[in-house]
Amino acid sequence: MANAVIEYEAKILDVAPQELARIIIDKAGSKVTLTVKEIVSDDIGGAQETEITVSDFDTTNTLLGKLGYRAKAYQENQRQSFLLDGAQLEIDSWPHIPPYLEIEASGKAEVLRVAELLGYSEDQLTGKNTTKIYADYGIDLKSITDLRFTE
After folding, report:
1. Which residues contact 89 (CB under 8 A, 6 or more apart)?
2. Which domains does the chain have, with CATH numbers?
3. For the stretch 29-61, what's the b/e string if a residue is b when 16 or more beta carbons lie within 10 angstroms of its beta carbon?
4. Which InterPro entries match (predicted)?
5. Cα angle: 26, vertex 81, 151; to 5 degrees
6. Which residues of the chain fall below pLDDT 70?
7. What letter would DSSP give residue 78?
8. What is the pLDDT of residue 28?
9. How many CA atoms lie within 13 A of 114 on its CB side?
10. Beta bridge partners of 102
11. Is 0.70 topped by the overall pTM?
């Protein structure tokens, strides 16, 4: 069984995706993942994540249903993935809110260092999860059972 790992990540809200993409080295490929994320706090190291790559969203969803799991909501997002100086960078776009950049690295100091390389300071970073980011925009994500880019 896979072990959960502490996830050292921070987000920078309301970014310009095209401008960021120009200064980050692109990571090729796309993948579908199944992730269980346990949020302990809003700190940079405040989440534990267990993730596995799966070959197909619909088949994985069917398998989970056969194991007795039921979806509480459907949520779409779009993600651009990059590698920069040893850190994983994700530009996440979600319906109804501005895009944000997520920086994930081997430790808090590395997250801060890579943020600085991109021109951001520690006070511009947040460890908030997506539900709390939606709340900042006045949207109760927990009450939305179907979140799509086109409705």
Report:
1. 20, 24, 81, 82, 83, 101, 102, 103, 104, 114
2. 5-147 (2.40.320.10)
3. eeeeeeeeeeeeeeebbbbeeeeeeeeeeeeee
4. CYTH-like_dom_sf
5. 125
6. 1-2, 22-30, 151
7. E
8. 44
9. 28
10. 11, 90
11. yes
